[in-house]
Structure formats: C-alpha cells, structure tokens
Amino acid sequence: MDLEILVENVLNAVTAGITIGCIYGLMCIGLGLIFGIMRIVNFAHGELYAFGAYFVYFAAILLGFNFFVSLLIAVVAGCILVFSACATAFVTQTLIGGAQLIYMPLHIYQQAVGANNWPFAAAISVVFTLAVMVVIYALNRAGRTSKAYAHG
C-alpha cells in the first residue's frame, strides 16, 4: 500500500515538473522570438500568458467546460484581445488622426531604442510599476475598510 502511494506521488511530481518545464519553455520561446525579431523586450508577453491562464481557469473550473475546449476558448479570447488593441491603436492614430500625444510606453521605447538610453527607460518603467502597485494597494485597503464599516 505504501509503495503504491509513493509511486503515485512520484508520478504526480514528475508530471507536474514536466508540465511546468514545458510552460517555461514556451514562454522563453515566445520571448526569444519577440526579442529576436523586434529587438524589444516585451513585458506584456507575461501579461498575455496570465490572461490566458486565468481565462482557462474561468472556463474550465467556473463554467465547467472541458479543459481542451477551455484552451481553445482562451486562444480565441487572446487573439481577440490582441487584435482589438492593435486595431484600436491603428484606427486612432492613422485613420482618425488622433493620438498625437506621446504616450508613456512610446516614450519609454524611444528612450530605450531611439536615444539608446536604457537606464532612463528602465527607471521610468520601475517608477510606473511601483506607482501602479501603490494605487492597487491603496484601492485594496480602501475596499477592505469600506467593507468592514458596511458590515460592522
């Protein structure tokens, strides 16, 4: 009996390790392709990966779909997300003639690649990441205190 449990635990650990290794490998291949072709480190790659993972979880666990159907739904949803962002940027800047302002991601890109000022671009990215984290923390704290007062 103990040998069966040991074998089952070892097989589960090996399967989980292979799965996580394949996921990391796919992420590295995607980052390598993007950096190799565009010469830009795309940090949004991880965000899209997380979006897909959450979407698969939502479809499989909460909605009760088959895992493979959930994967297909997540791929379609990811494609729609990327297409809508690209189409919006194209329509706004090219067809309508708007968005003449330099947005912060474009400014960071211009500093990093155009002016070859990587330290400044990295500093801007870190500052904005920390600012977003502070805002999220403040909203989280405000939500917790308002719920405590509402129920108390």
Key words describing this protein structure:
0% strand; 5 helices; single chain; mainly alpha; 152 residues; extended
Low-pLDDT windows of residues = none
Count of distinct structural domains: 3
Report the helical percentage.
Answer: over 70%
How many strands? 0
Structural class based on helices, strands and sheet pairing: mainly alpha
Round the Cα radius of gyration to an integer and report it. Answer: 22 Å
SSE string: HHHHH
Structural commentary:
The protein is mostly helical and 152 residues long. The chain folds into three domains: 1-42, no CATH class; 43-100, no CATH class; 102-152, no CATH class. Helix content is 86%, strand content 0%. The protein has helices at residues 2-38, 44-62, 67-95, 104-114, 118-151. α2 (44-62) packs across α3 (67-95) and α4 runs antiparallel to α5 (118-151). The model has no long low-confidence stretch (mean pLDDT 77).
Secondary structure blueprint with pairings:
Elements: H1 2-38, H2 44-62, H3 67-95, H4 104-114, H5 118-151
Helix pairs in contact: 2-3, 4-5
Précis, in short:
The protein has 152 residues and is mostly helical.
